[in-house]
Recover the amino acids of this structure.
């Protein structure tokens, strides 16, 4: 298209390439002579999902690109946040779409299921790309009968997936960005030392609550104190770098020590203007993680309703496979775990005035 | 494709024709040298809508086909119901999709809006086909600056729309099906006479309620009695065929007298087994009508947020146009009006035993 | 209230007892001198849940009552279906309510969490009643630190829960109703024998598909044939009563043999008029089960976000407990498993004419 | 309650005052001897709505309080935003609740409708308080048969509503806050002058687009140029203070000139850190307005389904009344109209460096 065509004929129909788009729903059942009405729905449902996957990839790629820019600036972070919110909105819609899928009944599906063999949603390249771009690694994934999930793809596709896995996922980009947070040690204020003291005060208080309760029987008190001791151990994540390194090595967590401490600071001081968008950004990453999990989970429920415990057309165990990925394919677990580390506002140490100003707006500091 | 290919190579990727599908998102802004990130979303949102329109048309066409079959049988009516429910599920999802559209902000839209000129959602052929297939007539529609909505289409498309408008819409097919209801006069039972007596009893009671109320001031009593008189006039729809014919002629209603009475009977005796699916079917038609109205309405809200009161790219008045169609483009209004005609169960006349049996199951009548 | 008061003063405000209702939100934090803004939300959220629980119990009790009536008739079954659909609509709303709960942030919750100790959602009597009325048994439940879930209740409440558990849950009432299905053996038609033959034909076909595939490597063929063998074993549920009894004894399933076969028949011949409502009724039971599972699951996600892995105020392990009940507290699993037993319509045996008539309407059989 | 009771016996059941709460569902139909099953749902639905109204009022009151504080600071604005988002989440849930209301069918409602006479949702004091607190004035409201909406309330309630109407609604507080925006004229930068020049450039471009189009017939070009002229007139809102004052006097708009210009600036430069929360806050106010409108609209649809065009129990015209409030009871219309005034980013004037710094963070300006 040339520059001068700019304002020449453009019609909704051409712009959306509807002639081509609406010619891509070719039923196997019709081609093979036994037309099944509901196969059109089956095709369109999956094509819509693939269009949304493309949109999600478009957003995630742009977000990664913005994070890669050395000079990440505040305006960009707002753009990143809005694009991640868009991804959430799309995954949310994908979850709602399951209600449409559920109008396809098991008996109607059985009318054309044979013709699809051995195709399977397992073979969606774009969905794998979404997972890998977010940060799901080969080792985090369920295997496919003991083999890599990549065996269902062509060589070219596998190379593409490898490139994503090696190229720096959103997880790693966010980790590096967190590590650059400048406020962890600031002009004589040691965030971790202040936090450690606050945690100790809080745990003492909770112990006293349990001990002083009139309501709890002695055995319940003992049990609760034991549980409190367990919960206490969560704080070791941040209170001891050595312990954190051990957990990293053992695969019990994934986010680096410095990034974890930064995420905690952002969570605790989220009201400070300069931390507002970073906090919302971490929330949105967790949100996407949760929504994808819910989608897999609802998808598994739907497959259960559709084929029960039968094997899927692609040879996976259908429902069980999907239910297992819902539990396992989480990426930002370490951010979720930050919640365990939060303490009441009343325990939070006051910030030195100089730091406080650095977390605020220029204009407010001038007036 | 030949029979023997049946179980040869089929892969998710080929089945869904993803190479073609995912190559149809070509941004005008990119072609014209000023790439706008958000145009991809704009294209995909509309392509998804068009895919859903295709699915809705697939269902509506099959439903019309089943209604046209002279030997409409009960199994078919269940199929009709399930397909209409699917249409509802899809329109519901279309409404949810507006949340994704709302992630496109006015400022981001303005980045590429100029390039789309003069294309417009107004030019969606498939959506017009959906409306016409359901039963929206040319005269029910808003005009486009005083001209037919068809002027934005090609000759071939106009011919296609004409054919749908003349070929018997779902509205007309349902009307004929209602007119065939066999139970209106049955072995000495005159449904309308019994209903008329019940209405009279009910209105007398309501008048007494108002007169006897300790709470209402005299002027309020008078006002309410006046309103009751007005509501009374609704019953003329069914109690007087002459009045109904007058309303039909004046365009105040559209459904034939016999079909209206049948719809009322089905509403009142919905618990009878043989009327269960017919009742649910009428409900689903109203549901689709309401959902499409909600979609137009939410769409209008979204356009307001996006471009305010500016004109749309297609030259419509944007928000105002959509808001007006939300109010005007209703098809099954006459079914909604049936609600005004319902009376309490306690007023409903007992059915003669023979009729009761004919509204039940064969098996139950045998045992 | 006396009869003559019928139409005397009644006002929205009195009718809903708003003076009392709106005086029940008494914050512990305010009483204890450190008012926490968000505690009002916390109270209202839970009160709304309890109001919905009461509504669900109202519906479930009425449904059980209708099932208990010896002369269960068709009109009643429609009422049962509509009330179960209402339960689904409510649970669905309960799931949506989690979005409101999520506006309470971890830090805001920590402001008053201490004051609630040791109260806990674990102590909701009504929710336990919902679960037990549906059919969850003591032995299906997670224990509470090795003890019965009932230990948090008073003696009177425990007695009430015992009564529900012993009085015939909805699960058992449905089971008995299924067992009464009259069409399993009908005038020379043996449903199970016909089904068995159809299953054999279908499995042979699937084996052939795998063997003849050009696409699958030999090892994949072997693997799939193995999986097919496994899936084959699901059919033993119904094809062998002895096997079914063994599974019942081993706790691998719960629904009686005769009820299972009836549920299968209803699923396969759902289009027959007399089976339409029974089929929808079974679907709705599964729906409620799924929705409650989704609610527990989303609830667990929300708790994770709120307190991470900390212990709940009631001494449960919070997130883990809820996530475990989401997986375990399912009641109508056996109905879900019916999906595994479905076979394509084309394999379904034709029904003898006499049986076909008995599954239809009286009126249709007369004309 | 005394301080020392802090950790004494507290149980979920007592905390939520469930004995009282669950005793407030007293059916009129039962009291009057003709028990209607569905009246429980009717009561609970409305009680739940009233609980949510109380929560909304709690949030709005706190938000107004924060706005009234002379020293409005940035942390507070974040709190305001989160509380407004909570209001949105609640109204959204209220909309979803209509699905539960729809399970009450017209026939079931008619079973007990008579007993409710003349109570009506019209008499909800709390909902009126929500509307008035947001900023709906007596003159913006539909009248009730030519009288004030307040005539259904007691003297004490009327006084309460008067106090809210006179005490400074959220609308007025937001207006004053907008008027205080410091960046409209800044060290030699005149926002309005720069904006006026940009608008002129944009309109010239759009005119050229229309003139140069190959696609549009001459009459269509003329029509579009006319429409562009009309849309042009929207800009007068901000480009001419005199015109704005005329519109204010004529009741065509409500927001003061200075506040309107500030809202435009915030919309155009939303990416600037210091404008981020103000922008999201304006968005959220529009969101609440839209959601309340949608709720009224869906409510009207539901009433149509329930009683058709009959009069409501409270003597309003039911559906028509609700549909009219959906169209009329909007509060932040002027914020919605800002969309008409937006122009493409490429037209936006560059900000002087000094102003740019003042819109950013202190920390960024230091490094």
């Amino acid at each position: 298209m040339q520059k001068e065509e700019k304002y020449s004929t453009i019609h909704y129909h051409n712009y959306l390439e509807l002639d081509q788009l609406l010619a891509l729903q070719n039923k196997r059942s019709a081609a093979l002579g036994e037309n099944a009405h509901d196969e059109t729905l089956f095709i369109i449902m999956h094509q819509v999902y693939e269009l949304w996957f493309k949109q999600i990839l478009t957003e995630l790629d742009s977000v990664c690109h913005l994070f890669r820019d050395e000079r990440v600036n505040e305006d960009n972070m707002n753009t990143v946040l809005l694009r991640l919110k868009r991804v959430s909105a799309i995954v949310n819609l994908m979850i709602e779409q399951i209600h449409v899928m559920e109008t396809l009944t098991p008996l109607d599906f059985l009318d054309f299921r044979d013709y699809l063999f051995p195709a399977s949603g397992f073979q969606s390249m774009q969905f794998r790309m979404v997972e890998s771009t977010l940060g799901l690694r080969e080792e985090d994934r369920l295997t496919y009968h003991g083999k890599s999930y990549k065996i269902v793809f062509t060589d070219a596709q596998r190379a593409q997936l490898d490139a994503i896995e090696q190229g720096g996922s959103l997880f790693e980009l966010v980790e590096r960005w967190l590590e650059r947070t400048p406020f962890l040690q600031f002009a004589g204020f040691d965030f971790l030392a202040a936090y450690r003291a606050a945690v100790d005060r809080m745990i003492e208080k909770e112990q006293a609550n349990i001990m002083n309760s009139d309501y709890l029987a002695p055995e319940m008190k003992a049990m609760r104190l034991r549980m409190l001791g367990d919960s206490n151990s969560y704080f070791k994540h941040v209170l001891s770098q050595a312990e954190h390194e051990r957990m990293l090595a053992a695969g019990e967590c994934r986010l680096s020590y410095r990034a974890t401490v930064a995420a905690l600071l952002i969570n605790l001081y989220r009201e400070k203007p300069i931390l507002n968008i970073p906090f919302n950004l971490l929330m949105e990453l967790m949100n996407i993680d949760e929504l994808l999990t819910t989608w897999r989970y609802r998808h598994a429920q739907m497959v259960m309703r559709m084929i029960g415990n039968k094997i899927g057309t692609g040879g996976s165990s259908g429902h069980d496979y999907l239910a297992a990925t819902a539990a396992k394919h989480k990426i930002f677990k370490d951010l979720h775990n930050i919640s365990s580390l939060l303490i009441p506002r009343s325990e939070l140490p006051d910030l030195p005035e100089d730091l406080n100003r650095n977390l605020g707006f220029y204009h407010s500091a001038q007036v």
In short: The first helix of chain B runs from residue 12 to 15. Residues 14-366 of chain B form a domain with the Methane Monooxygenase Hydroxylase; Chain G, domain 1 fold (CATH 1.20.58.480). Chain B has one domain: 14-366. Chain B touches chain A through 66 residues (CB under 8 Å).
